Each structure stands twice: as C-alpha cells, then as structure tokens.
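Cross-check.
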Amino acid sequence: MIELNRSHLVDSLTARLDTAANGRQRTMLERVVEHAAAERDGDLADLMATLGPATAYHFWEAQGDVGPKGLDGVEAYCLHLVESNGHILEFRTESIVVDDHCIVAEGVLTMIQPGQLMVEHPIAGDFCQADKTYLLRLRNVMLHACPF
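Predicted model, tokenized:
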C-alpha cells in the first residue's frame, strides 16, 4: 500500500519560517504555506485567495509551457484537479531556498492520479486508461515568484 505524507510540503515550509532572514521572506513563506495547505485540502476558495492578479502556472513539457495563465485559467485548472482527485500528492522537499523575490522548493513529487485525469495529458493520454489509477513519481522544482 502506498502511503503519502500529504503535509510534507506544508511542514517543510513551516519549519523554514524559523530561519527566514527578514519580515518579507517570512510573509512570502507564510503565503506559500497557506497556498500549499489549501492545495492539500482541496480548498479552492482559500487557494485562490493566495494568488495575485498576474498568476501564471508554468508546466514545461516537450512542446513548451502548457500551464494555465491568469486567475480564471488557474482557477479552472485547480477546480478540475480537485474534482478529479488529482490533488492527492506528496512533495518531499529536499531543499528550500528563499530570497526577497522568490521561493524555490526542490524534491520528489509523488502523485496518485486517476486515469480520467491522465487521459487528458498530452503525453500520457495515448497510453493511459480512464478506468485505471496511476502512481507517478518525479523530481520537481517549484518556483514561487512573489511580486507583492
């Protein structure tokens, strides 16, 4: 049986608060903790409350950046993810770097993905089946640019 620690990212970011160099970095970390907790919990209202008007998700694949852009695009993406149970994941962070403009978290992302979501993926759609469930594990780097 696969067990995921869905709070690992939230816990890692919260622990990093203790070593924030200044108030701006602490505020940025607090916002990303709120965002990560809302993602974990599938709370779309709280998630969207952590985003600014110029929000853009960047998901780089072979054909380029396929991430949703703008608040409407990100909200539709997140709603679909939650409704499909695609937000069931663990991000086991290995390093977190913070400066006054960006937070970078790097580690291993493990996701339990329903086939109905996987068949929509431009790369996986050709070989995934909608009635199956998939376990994905990959290295991941998240960059949270904080313009405020």
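Residues 8-145 form a domain with the Nuclear Transport Factor 2; Chain: A, fold (CATH 3.10.450.50). The chain has one domain: 8-145. Passed to J.P. for a second look.
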